[in-house]
Amino acid sequence: MSQAPTERFRITDLVKMEAEEAVNALLEQAAQLRASDLFFLSDERFVTASIRRMGSIEKLAVVSTEHGRQMMTHIKALAGMDISDRRRPADGRWIHEAGQRKLDLRINCTPMLHGEDMALRIWDHTIGLFALDELGMSRADLNKLLFMLNHPSGLILVTGPTGTGKTTSLYACLQYLNDGARKLNTLEDPIEYAIDGIRQSQVNAKLGLDFPELLRNVLRQAPDVIMIGEIRDEETATTAVRAANSGHLVLATLHAPTAASAVHSMLALGSHSYFLSGCLLGVIAQRLLRTLCPNCRSGYDISLSPQTFQEIESLLAEGEGKAIYGPSGCEECFHLGYVGRSGLFEIMTANQEIRRLVSQAASSQAIEEAAIRAGMTVFRRGALLKVAQGVTSTEEILRDVPAEQLGLED
After folding, report:
1. Count of CB atoms situated within 10 Å of the CB of 18
2. pLDDT interval class at 331 (50, 70, 90)
3. Is 54 left (phi over 0), alpha (psi -120 to 50) or beta?
């Protein structure tokens, strides 16, 4: 039987270590497990150290309140943060190097009921950023994205809930565009990863430097490509559309559940339908799915149910769709059954019909139907394809994709 992750990864001798040694041990364990975040969570009588790995929280250690505070103080000191102020939120950054491993840590402290909570976003330089062909897109979807990125101007929106890899996709796009022939500027809150060759700016609310103010000034820097970390207000939405219509290639994230619904999210933020239709190149909507460990996944023959993947039969390669797979657990995947995550995408490219519908502020359903006619693979079909290919399990699809987007609502 697979051992529970929270028990398997727990570091039991952390209480015997000094603060510096304990922090190093936690960071080494988090990096080894390819965690995206390390947390220190303060409760009334203890502090819990946990990680987020492949979207799930797993406990590493529980220490006394005093020991937890010492570790957080040590991290704050190395990140150049004020160690005496525990009553206000604070941000910092620390580059941690241990042997061949180099961790770029973005740190936030926020006061809670029983003390401070600390979150460390982890970027392991030895792993690096993802390239476009590593995001999990099908060849057809990747070609659509490349077609959009090769336009000299226009607006590309990346949508999805928090934690679905939007920033990862944007950075992959920036790396593709970062060929030295174009000037690339970003507006971020905060800057996730530093990339050579790209001019990166960070929002600073304390100085009144928000996205609209920063965007107005970045436009004076004569960029060819602008990446906006998030469109969250009317002024940013309007200015982004204006920039895309005036010769800039603009990439931005937006909160919308599907590709088609992103249009109405922009209209709700005050974008003029005519100007939006003129500059919109396309929308990428995404989710993240855990990928099965190829070393231990269990296969289940479905030859007696040939209709299982009938809906996507035309998308399957030779030999695919003959079985479905589920997680087992082995040493390779730390008995979890999964070894990484892959994107699930809807990519809508704006053709003449879609532009006409956008200019008329048509319903999301009408826009989606037009996008499907133009070849967009909706989440339901994309999810089925990943199951048929043995990339992930049906349980994972049901866990991470809302039922209404799978066509399972009542």
Report:
1. 12
2. confident
3. left
- What the block records as the tokens of 72 is 């957080």
Nearest one of 375, 371, 379 to 350, comparing CA atoms: 371
CA distances 24 to 29, 272, 410, Å, are 9, 52, 50
pTM for the complete prediction?
A: 0.86
Q: If you count them, how many residues does the chain have?
A: 410
CA dist 296 and 298 (Å) reads 6
Q: Is residue 153 within 8 Å of residue 240, measured between CB atoms?
A: no
Enumerate residues 6+ apart whose C-beta is below 8 A from 27: 38, 96, 98, 103, 105, 122
Q: What is the identity of the amino acid at 5?
A: P
Omega before 190 cis (within 30°)? yes
41-100 pLDDT tens trace = 999 999 999 999 888 899 999 999 999 999 999 999 999 999 888 888 998 989 998 777
Question: Could you give the 3-state DSSP secondary structure of residue 323?
Answer: strand
CA distance 409 to 304: 27
Domains of the chain: 5-124 (3.30.450.90), 132-405 (3.40.50.300)
Tell me which amino acid residue 323 is: A
Where helices occur in 115-207 by DSSP H, the ranges are: 139-149, 166-177
Bridge-based pairing of strands 90-98 and 37-42 is: unpaired
Which token pair is 121? 């976003």
Neighbours of 99 (CB within 10 A): 7
Q: Are 58 and 51 contacting, i.e. CB atoms less than 8 angstroms apart?
A: yes
Compute the distance between CA of residue 28 and CA of residue 32 in angstroms, rounded to an integer.
Answer: 6
Contact in structure between 187 and 203 (CB atoms under 8 Å): yes
- Report the alpha-carbon angle 214-219-221, nearest 5: 100
